[in-house]
Amino acid sequence: MEKLIFIHVLGFLRKDTTPARNENTEVKVKMDVSNTLMTEQKKSFVSKFQLASTIFYCYLFLSIQSLSSNPSQSFDEIRKSVVQIRVYSQAKDPYSPWLSGQVQASTGTGFLIGKNRILTNAHVISNAKFMEGQRHKQTEWYGLKLLYVAHDCDLAILEATSDEFYDDSSTLEFGDIPELTSQVDIVGYPIGGSKISVSRGIVSRIEQSTYAHSQIDSHLVIQVDAAINPGNSGGPALQNGKVVGVAFQASTRGENIGYIIPTIVVQHFLKDIEDGKYDGYVELGIHTTPSYSEAGRKFYKIPKERSGVFVSKVLEGGSAFGYLKRGDFLMSIDRNEIGKNGNLKDQNNIDFLEIVDNKFAGETIEFELIRNGKQLKVQFPAKRMLSMDLMRNSYDTDYDYFMFGGLVFQKTNRDLLESWSKSGQTQSGSLLLYRFYHFNELVTTETEDVVLYRKLSHPSNTAHDYFLNLVVSHVNNNKVNNLNQFKDLILNSKENFIQLRFYGTSIPLILDKGEALSIDSEIRKLYQIGNVK
């Protein structure tokens, strides 16, 4: 699945998987231009895919026959529950946070699960300004509203604004995790047509892996060899008439390699929102290494008959902080034995972290471990790791920033770094990236890093290029803990000069406070920036 790989200067990360949302180009205001483009695209589509469409519909017919033969639920009932979703979205530009991006049109899929609720992927509706949906045989589109969204597991709940939308509808029930080599049917509205589509595949792998939407969270995924194309996102994966997963992403490095979110993750999300809000996943907050090395096992006095993993790091803010220690040998979690590779011994393809993944804040985590040659049990409550919010992609949010003398500061986050990596101004950025990846190991009192990542050129700041892409450590000898405090330290300072210190260099940046504040209004007009913070 997806691996985050540092590529020096050329890019911030590499994507091996991509969400299966059908993204179109910028929404045009002039309808005559739009209609012309649509006509040209239609002609191109017919000429290029006429043969493929014939093959597809033959396959679709056979798939429908198979689904209809299922005694649990007919295909006519199934497609009454499936929703085509159309979204118009607009996001802020993290590199120029005073600007908004283009309005984008995209499509996805959802399905009814009861109580007028529509389940879909979070990436289908992220940054949405307007959403509408349509079911099989409906001739008009109905407005949709967002009820709940979980970006850490790529799921969302929508609701139609009109009761008429639900006329003659049906709902789908959830099943269990499918067995390896069993067949599943992916139902949705992918590119290539406006009618409902069915594709069939074999379950080929079940494991924990990264979800492309957040690019940092890992949960259980099911790999299938069914085609999951743009527009399929949010559609149900069915087996024996029941939902066994939600289609959500596809591999960019192979053919017909798709991924679905298993029902265990869906049920965790649904249980989380029972109290009317989504809290998010808890994090154990440790790094581990396998215990294959016999020398290492002897050094830590591990009996030959015991298997498990070594704790190599404990991250501040995680559930394990203050309870587990580096060098601990973890033998079992909640009485489930851990193998030498970190998988559960009775489920060799499942990482032991899956047990933590299924917990909610406040629930107990219990480890049996060996520490300093002694065997003991350790219990502690599961909790969220707030610093993870900086590590994952952000959606439906503005980016807070501070401009001072034409120098633009922002808290370090994944969105900013992705845009920054494409800017061509990444010099001296190695420490910035290192601190981002190792933030939980480096922090003391900081809740976020503040970086000087951009300069809006002006005669008064021509000598400040040296400090670009450096993380601020102090303002006039006061340690910087977050962006809001950084602003206050500068704006409330009684000193005539502001001294900024940065990690990785002993040279301070000295700014005349009065001059810096006075030129900000001039820079605002020069660069046509509205309300500068």
Give a description of the structure.
With 533 residues, this protein is an alpha+beta fold. Helices cover 22% and strands 33% of the residues. It contains twelve helices and 29 strands. The strands form five sheets. Strands 23, 24, 25, 26, 27, 28 and 29 form a seven-stranded antiparallel sheet that branches. The chain has a six-stranded antiparallel β-barrel with strand order 9-10-11-14-13-12. It has a six-stranded antiparallel beta barrel with strand order 3-4-5-8-7-6. Strand 13 and strand 14 form a beta hairpin. The protein is flat and about 75 Å long. The two termini are 39 Å apart. The N terminus is likely disordered.
Number of strands: 29
Helical content band: 10-25%
Average pLDDT for all residues: 86
Main sheet attributes: strand count, strand direction, barrel closure? 7 strands, antiparallel
N→C terminal distance: 39 Å
Categorize the overall geometry: flat
What fraction of the residues are assigned to beta strands by DSSP?
A: 25-35%
**Uncertain regions spanning at least 5 consecutive residues:** 1-14, 25-66
Radius of gyration: 26 Å
Contiguous helical run count: 12
* Broad structural category: alpha+beta
Concise structural overview:
This protein is α+β, with helices and mostly antiparallel strands.
Strand and helix map with partners:
Blueprint: E1 17-19, E2 22-26, H1 31-68, H2 75-81, E3 82-89, E4 104-114, E5 117-120, H3 122-125, E6 128-135, E7 142-150, E8 155-160, E9 183-188, E10 197-210, E11 218-224, E12 236-239, E13 242-251, E14 258-262, H4 263-272, E15 286-290, H5 294-299, E16 309-314, E17 329-333, E18 336-337, E19 343-344, E20 347-351, H6 353-357, E21 364-371, E22 374-381, H7 388-391, E23 401-404, E24 407-411, H8 414-421, H9 430-437, H10 439-442, E25 450-455, E26 470-475, E27 478-479, H11 483-491, E28 497-502, E29 509-512, H12 513-526
Antiparallel strand pairs: 1-13, 2-4, 3-4, 3-6, 4-5, 5-8, 6-7, 7-8, 9-10, 9-12, 10-11, 11-14, 12-13, 13-14, 15-16, 16-17, 17-18, 17-21, 19-20, 21-22, 23-24, 24-25, 25-26, 26-27, 26-28, 28-29
